[in-house]
Amino acid sequence: MSIDPRRTAVLALHWQVNVIRPEGFFGAMLAEPVRRSGVVARAAAFHSAARELGIPLVFTRFTIPEGEGSLVRNTGFMRAVAEAQEAFRPDAPGSAVVPEAGFAPEADEVADNQRLSGLAGTDLADRLAARGVDTVLLTGVATNLTVEQTARHATDLGLTVHVVSDCATAADEAAHHASLANLELTTAGCRTASELL
Question: Fewer CB near the last or first residue (10 Å), C or N of the chain?
Answer without folding.
Answer: N
